[in-house]
Amino acid sequence: MGLLGLGTVGTGTAEILLDSAGRNPLIKQMAIHRVGVKSLDKPRAVDLPRELFTTDLESIVTDPEVDVVVELIGGIEPARSLILKAIEAKKHIVTANKAVIARHGDEIYTAANEAGVYVLLEASVGGGIPIIQPLKQSLGANKIQRVTGIINGTTNYILTRMQTEGADFDEVLADAQRLGYAEADPTADVDGFDAADKISILASLAFGGRIHYEDIEREGIRQVSVTDITYAEDLGFVVKLLAIAQRDEHTHGSLQVRVGPTFVPRDHPLASVNGVYNAILVEGEPLGQVMFFGPGAGKGATASAVVSDLLNLFSLLASDQKNPLLGCSHQHYCTITPISELETRFYVRFLCGDRPGVIGHLGTCFGHHGVSLESIVQIGFQDHLAEVVVVTHDVQEQNFRDALAEIQGESARDINIASILRVL
Ligand SMILES: NC(=O)C1=CN([C@@H]2O[C@H](COP(=O)(O)OP(=O)(O)OC[C@H]3O[C@@H](n4cnc5c(N)ncnc54)[C@H](OP(=O)(O)O)[C@@H]3O)[C@@H](O)[C@H]2O)C=CC1
Ligand SMILES: N[C@@H](CC=O)C(=O)O
Ligand code: NA
Q1: What is the pLDDT of residues 353-372, one digit of tens each?
Q2: Does pLDDT of 11 surpass 80?
Q3: Number of other CB atoms surrounding residue 116 within 10 Å
Q4: Which residues does the UniProt record annotate as the domain ACT (predicted)?
Q5: I want to staple 191 with a disulfide (CB 3.0 to 4.6 A). Which of 88, 220, 295, 362 is the partner?
Q6: What is the ipTM of this complex?
Q7: Fold of 341-423
Q8: 296 Cβ closer than 6 Å to some ligand 2 atom
Q9: What is the Cα–Cα distance from 5 to 148, expressed in whole angstroms?
């Protein structure tokens, strides 16, 4: 096999392959033939012969001795081009790269199907948690209704610490970077891109069609404040960055796919998933609910998922067989419901001038747009402004936004919206 990348996950993968005793016997047969890296001078934590190393990754993906290419360099380029070149040379692919699959899955899987090779990606979502193989195989009898995940460990760590310590976002982000959970550029995690990549992969598997990445409604956690987390607790919720893909109940065949900070009821199974852990709740018929929980990242955990794909491939190669369940047969793109038509509950916090009739004005405007309220409470004061918190029933996003526009209309210049979050 050819290994592209010997960083965190590449090192974990090599460590498992070099220490096969006590693991599945097939692992003994997996030899690392070449290793592609950026720098030949870097000290390496695994003991691999120096002559295996090269910076010429193209020579690995076209090497006739290599039958499986394990792509662990990450990012879009050169990962995309190397994967396509490897497929063209009839190599099977194992990858942990959710970004390249979410954004270029169409051309990669089309090429793989034409070449008759597999592209396996268990490590790309939920790290070590088995979720790709269950969706492809074990849950195949079910009509999946909804997949709800906490699938970004960095943001879950940040939100958990904001909740338990009352610490501010910037302070916890700096700590997460120091501890190595968050990258130097935390954008992909904090702004929800990583979770959007992952939910697009899960939605595609759960609902049997490709997903246009740009259609996913995405919001990160930068604007989540300790004030909102505290109010969430008072109201019986915790705040989580949820990635959700579900069948739209009102349209046949259309999907809702979104990522955003969400109020989760305290008794919901995902509410107690804390720290860097990930969990994915799958709901289907006839199974009901099943939840997958575990380490969503890290050297050993992610490598465990990479090696599980290698086991699938090597068992097929050893017996010269094919397994249609491992491939991708999607030919069409799913239709995604426009955000304006989504129906969810909302939490909204207003800062208003403390004058008679303010709460009445809020209630009247919501009523004009058919937005039914579960609760409306004046909680306290902030800088002489009254703080009013509203939780709605399920409402159509467009009606909710129209009501907010009316609330902030000409006659109410002293009403500001401090925050808006969805409620599960
Ligand atoms: N880390 C984690 O916990 C998880 C990671 N993943 C995914 O796994 C993949 C790998 O991540 P991770 O191991 O953390 O990444 P690292 O940054 O630790 O390692 C990347 C490796 O790829 C090599 N590399 C990067 N770019 C090039 C290039 N242009 N040419 C040659 N070599 C290159 C680097 O070489 P060199 O060593 O010389 O710098 C390094 O060995 C990513 O897709 C990531 O999203 C998925 C789940 C969890
Ligand atoms: N950055 C990701 C880890 C890899 O998928 C996370 O924080 O979950
Ligand atoms: Na996984």
Answers
A1: 888 888 899 999 999 999 99
A2: yes
A3: 11
A4: 347-424
A5: 220
A6: 0.99
A7: Alpha-Beta Plaits (3.30.70)
A8: yes
A9: 31
Averaged pLDDT for residues 381-391: 90
Contact, 93 vs 71, CB < 8 A? Answer: yes
Q: Which residue has the tokens 């394990």?
A: 70
Measured distance CA(115)–CA(121) in Å, rounded: 18
Q: Which amino acid is at 248?
A: D
Options 3.20.20.70, 3.40.50.80, 3.30.450.20, 3.40.50.720; CATH for 2-128+299-326 is 3.40.50.720
Torsion of CA 333, 337, 340, 343, to 10 degrees: -150
What's the 38 CA to ligand 1 centre distance in angstroms? 10
Does the pLDDT at position 180 exceed 80?
Answer: no
Instruction: Among 129, 152, 200, say which to mutate for ligand 2: greatest number of ligand atoms within 8 Å of CB.
Output: 152
Helix (H, G, I), strand (E, B) or coil at 315: helix
Please tell me if the CB atom of residue 182 comes closer than 6 angstroms to any atom of ligand 1: no
For the chain, the structural domain boundaries read 2-128+299-326, 132-295, 341-423
Q: How many residues does the chain have?
A: 424
Nearest ligand to residue 152 Cα: 2
**What pLDDT is stored for residue 236 in this prediction?**
95
198 noted as active-site residue: yes
| Per-residue pLDDT reduced to its tens digit, 305-337 | 999 999 999 999 888 888 888 988 787 999 999
5: its two tokens: 């990348």
**CB of 97 closer than 8 Å to CB of 75:** yes
Comparing CA positions, the residue from 314, 386, 399 lying closest to residue 349 is: 386
Structure-token pair, residue 67: 């039958």
Atom number, ligand 1, closest to the C-alpha of residue 73: 22
User: Measured from the CB, is residue 152 less than 6 Å from ligand 1?
Assistant: no
Q: Around 104, how many Cα atoms within 13 Å sit in the side-chain half-sphere? A: 18
Distance of alpha carbon 171 from alpha carbon 40, whole angstroms: 36
How far, in Å, CA of 3 to CA of 91, rounded?
12
Mean pLDDT of 28-41: 97
Phi (first) and psi of residue 119, to 5 degrees: -125, 105
Catalytic residue among 98, 136, 198, 240: 198
- Indicate whether residue 82 lines ligand 1 (CB < 6 A): no
Asked if 2-128+299-326 and 341-423 have one fold, the answer is no
Classify domain 132-295 at the CATH superfamily level.
Dihydrodipicolinate Reductase; domain 2 (3.30.360.10)
C-alpha 249, offset from chain centre: 23
